[in-house]
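G., the chain you wanted modeled:
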Amino acid sequence: MLLVRTLLAAATLLVSAVLGPLLGDAGPEERPIVPIPLSGGLERADAEISGLAWYGDELVILPQYPERLGGNVFAMARGDVEAWLDGRGTAPVPRAVPIEASGLEQREGFEGFEAIAFRGAQVFLTVEIEEGQPEGLLLRGRVEGDLERIAIDPSRRARLAPQADIENLAYEALAVTDDRVMVFYETNGANNAEPRVRVFDHDLRPQHDLDLGRIEYRITDVSEVDASGRMWAVNYFWDGEEWEPGECPIAARFGLGATHARSRNVERLVELRVTDRGVEPTDTPPIQLELDPDGARNWEGIVQLPGRGFLIVTDEHPESILAFVPG
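Predicted structure as tokens:
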């Protein structure tokens, strides 16, 4: 029963907070994850889930290559997710939602969908394209019916130039507000001389970019933006990357949790805020996840679950994992 798992996760937090200093593991509290079963093909590693977003009360799950799963993205009812977290009912069952991208997946150099966000019936997505060097596309489309189908408008697109000379990095996160679309590049620390958030209006016309405060490691997704301009970013690093990050000012300020102090892998959530100066980390300490001793988990998607915490998801490394993180 998941209620038992959730209580155990809370107990783990309490024990860590009380016994950590006594055992020599003094540092910020780390959060355990509570896995949520996946089905319908999403449980396969080759689903390569790359993003999460809310469409009303439905959780939309974006595979990097929808054609591998019948040309579909997937949706789960928020009520079903919360019922399962409370120990009521069975695991939520994803339903398939066809996505029509006008042959985009057959385009030479197509490297998959990376992020998704909604504003009413409008949908925005980023795509990675490899044409000599990795770059991105920002796309727009519409939701048809009651999330019965997603149709991408091939005439609506904006190019996203790379911000660093590193292979296999692109734009993996986006957030939509009432007046703009904000797109985030993956690496924004020592390997990016001028980190910035690309900004567009809802018709994908470029606006003034926003400076982004230095954040080491990768930004792989951001949550929805709240009324005060705050959002949460997935901030991840795998020790096997071919590029080296710089010194992390967030870690220097807030310290490392017990498992992070013993590893070069980084799995954390960082709160960001849109200000007059740009987008920058807030004074809220990052949420560090308890690292898995068997290896890093490549978290690629995040949404907030109001009043509870977060839902996050991995791609194929080490497998497809949808998880709840207590807030």
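Residues 1-25 have pLDDT under 50 and may be disordered.

Shout if anything looks off.
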